């Protein structure tokens, strides 16, 4: 069976091929959405909890949520339902889908690693770094043994708080500068309007004066 494990926090996924049928029995008779402890798969899976999100059987038919059977059934599906994409408006078609219960006929199983806070029931104030399951890497030539852990997203650290304060300060300064520029522009616009009005009035007085002079000379 192929296990497609995704980590939504980082948006990554990886495909694992597991040939041991005995270790795969932890997924049998489990429904889509169930949580499964992955310890029996091997020492590298120790501490991981996987959520079943879907899968395909040996012939490529997908699993469908809500079908409480482990066999294949034919359903009349319409647009908006999973496992079917309508080509026309109002079109319905009978399609073969697999039930939402896992059995030995499933060839590819989609899994999702649960989030750390939800897994350990932690609050936003708790430090999640010490709850991360690290994978030990063997020592190579002229190198020490190291460990590897997944990257933690949305981790609150002093550096992140400083970056947030800096971003807020920049935003306030930008708004203050925009307001000052708007006030200056309004003053300049009022001055230009006043000058234009005075120029029009002076031209009007000059024209009226010239008309009176021409009429007086005639």
From TrEMBL:
What taxonomic classification does the UniProt entry list for its organism?
Answer: Eukaryota, Metazoa, Ecdysozoa, Arthropoda, Hexapoda
Cite the InterPro entries for this sequence.
Ribosomal_eS6 (IPR001377), Ribosomal_eS6-like (IPR014401), Ribosomal_eS6_CS (IPR018282)
Record-stated family: Belongs to the eukaryotic ribosomal protein eS6 family.
Which keywords annotate this record?
A: Ribonucleoprotein, Ribosomal protein
- Asked if the keyword DNA damage belongs to this entry, the reply reads no
| Name this polypeptide is given | 40S ribosomal protein S6
Region described as Disordered:
192-218
The processes (GO biological process) annotated in the record are:
translation
Q: Fetch the PANTHER family from UniProt.
A: 40S RIBOSOMAL PROTEIN S6
Give the encoding gene's name: Dper\GL17130
Cytoplasm as UniProt keyword: no
Q: Gene3D superfamilies given for it? A: 1.20.5.2650
Signal peptide residues on this chain, from the entry's feature table: none
Q: Return the Basic residues bias intervals.
A: 192-210
Query: From the record, what ranges are coiled-coil?
Result: none
Gene Ontology molecular-function annotations: structural constituent of ribosome
In the UniProt record, which is one GO cellular component term? Answer: ribosome
């Amino acid at each position: 069976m192929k296990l497609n494990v995704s980590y939504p926090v980082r948006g990554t996924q990886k495909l694992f091929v597991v040939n041991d049928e005995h270790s795969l029995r932890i997924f049998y008779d489990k429904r889509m959405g169930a949580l499964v402890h992955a310890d029996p798969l091997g020492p590298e899976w120790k501490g991981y909890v996987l959520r079943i999100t879907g899968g395909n059987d040996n012939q490529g038919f997908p699993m469908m949520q809500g079908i409480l059977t482990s066999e294949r059934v034919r359903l009349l599906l319409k647009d908006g339902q999973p496992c079917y994409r309508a080509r026309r408006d109002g079109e319905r078609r009978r399609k073969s889908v697999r039930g939402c219960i896992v059995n030995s006929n499933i060839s590819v199983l989609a899994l999702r690693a649960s989030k750390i806070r939800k897994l350990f029931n932690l609050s936003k104030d708790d430090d999640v770094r010490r709850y991360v399951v690290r994978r030990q890497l063997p020592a190579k030539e002229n190198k020490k043994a190291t460990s590897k852990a997944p990257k933690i997203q949305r981790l609150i650290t002093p550096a992140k708080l400083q970056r947030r304060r800096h971003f807020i300060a920049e935003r306030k300064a930008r708004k203050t500068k925009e307001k000052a520029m708007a006030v200056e522009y309004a003053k300049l616009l009022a001055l230009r309007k006043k000058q234009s009005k005075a120029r029009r009035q002076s031209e009007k007085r000059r024209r009226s004066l010239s008309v009176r002079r021409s009429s007086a000379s005639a």
